[in-house]
Design goal:
Largest sheet: 4 strands, mixed
Subcellular location: Cell membrane
Protein name: Protease HtpX homolog
Structural class: alpha+beta
Radius of gyration: 22 Å
CATH superfamily: Metalloproteases ("zincins"), catalytic domain
Shape: elongated
Main location: membrane
CATH class: Alpha Beta
Number of strands: 6
Binding site for Zn(2+): 149, 153, 224
Strand content: 5-15%
CATH architecture: 2-Layer Sandwich
CATH topology: Zincin-like
Strand order of the largest sheet: 3-4-6-5
Number of domains: 1
Keywords: Cell membrane, Hydrolase, Membrane, Metal-binding, Metalloprotease, Protease, Transmembrane, Transmembrane helix, Zinc
Order of helices and strands: HEEHEHEEEHHHHHH
Helix content: 55-70%
Number of helices: 9
Length: 292
């Protein structure tokens, strides 16, 4: 799932910055009066930019993921090798069981990392992609558990709820960045104030976006437990636990071999900080499923 979150946040920051520059150059959304900031107008302006940026990011998420990861989308009606057919059938079977009416696109990208992700603007316009490394390292039962987890993200509508959350975060980012920029522009000469204000808005907006991503990461960790439960319902509790244990074993092995934090499903083997993690600890996820 971390791939999905990464693409969404990166796209969001780029889109938000682009929209901001366009609005500033065109003079739209003026919220500064002779008496200072009109906070009501600024809040409305911030919400418009914030939610527009979030929804544009959502619409671009599937396209961005395919381009950035060079995902080979498998045509379910075209020629496939046995492994590709197996993955497509797994995704379609899980999707039907989850009540998804239009089958997700299925893709494989060539990377040695053990990873998989699901993305897309809606349940009917989604993508499930797995890495070649995952297919090489995991047995069929573990692969099925991983795919069930990703399909559960789609069925749960996690990208849409993530977008609504990101819209709220964006609103506060835009709002606070402009207040901070206005204050900063008061400390320079009057002729320099517009330039400082312009630059400060971009700088503060990017900085606050990074801080705001901590809220998104926290929500992501919360939704991972739900996707695990959904994966257990689709593939079976034993396969879901087996998939997580396989990821855990792989992460530990790679960590021991190379003193790095290579991540299975981007779950760090050596967690630097829980605040910056998109996933809960694997041991916690396994324990919750076992107690289910």
């Amino acid at each position: 799932m971390a791939k999905r979150i990464f693409f969404f946040i990166l796209t969001n920051v780029l889109v938000l910055t682009t929209i901001t520059i366009i609005f500033m150059l065109t003079g739209a959304g003026n919220y500064i009066t002779a008496n200072g900031i009109d906070y009501g107008a600024l809040l409305i302006f911030s919400a418009i930019i914030g939610f527009t940026g979030a929804f544009i990011s959502l619409l671009m998420s599937r396209w961005m993921a395919k381009k950035m990861m060079n995902v080979k989308v498998i045509d379910p009606d075209g020629p496939m090798n046995s492994r590709e057919r197996q993955i497509v059938e797994m995704v379609h079977r899980m999707s039907r069981a989850a009540g998804i009416t239009k089958m997700p696109e299925v893709g494989i990208y060539h990377s040695p990392e053990v990873n998989a992700f699901a993305t897309g603007p809606s349940k009917n316009r989604s993508l499930v992609a797995v890495s070649a490394g995952l297919l090489n390292e995991m047995d069929d039962a573990a692969v099925e558990g991983v795919i069930a987890h990703e399909v559960a993200h789609i069925a749960n509508g996690d990208m849409v709820t993530m977008t609504l959350l990101q819209g709220v975060v964006n609103t506060f980012v835009v709002f606070l960045a402009r207040i901070a920029a206005f204050v900063a522009s008061r400390f320079v000469k009057e002729e320099m104030a517009p330039i400082v204000h312009f630059i400060a808005i971009i700088v503060f907006q990017i900085a606050f976006s990074i801080l705001g991503s901590l809220v998104v990461f926290a929500y992501s960790r919360y939704r991972e437990f739900h996707a695990d439960r959904g994966g257990a319902d689709l593939a079976g509790k034993d396969k879901m636990i087996h998939a997580l244990r396989s990821l855990q074993a792989y992460t530990n092995r790679v960590s021991d071999e190379k003193d790095t934090a290579i991540a299975s499903l981007k779950i760090n083997g050596k967690r630097k900080s829980a605040l910056f993690s998109t996933h809960p600890d694997l041991s916690d996820r396994i324990a919750r499923l076992e107690a289910k």
